Fold this sequence. Notes:
2 domains, S-adenosyl-L-methionine-dependent methyltransferases, 154 residues, alpha+beta
Amino acid sequence: MRALLPLSRDQHRRERRLQGPQRIEQQFRWVTDLDYHGHQLQWLECQETLTHLPSGDSTQSRFVHLTNLELSRATVVMLSRTGRLRWKIENEGFNTQKHHGYALQHKYARVNWQAAKNYYQVRFVDPKPKRELWGKGPEPERGKDLWLENLIRV
């Protein structure tokens, strides 16, 4: 993508704002009309520097987005913020499902794709079938695997 940036010299924008004790500087660059198997895509990069004003310490981050939405000087800031928020929601949601009691793991998709979809839907939509398969009381440690085995048989 960096090789295409010189062709898009007018496609950049710089933002600077204060937010509490921090100064936020963002530099946006983008490339439009990328053809990928007949789909028109746009590439957007945000390089962000956060400076803690009392101490002068700064951190730099780079965010890259690929989208089919139209990019322009008027839309890049909003699209980058929205993309970062969407990533945060999806990442935190999956992290909760994987590590905080839902027992969702990648291994379920390796056995049988239909079983993985069934597992996900039953696990998060209706708690009643889960109780019937696990039995009453707290889930035993092996109960999670037994539940999946029973679901595959159904």
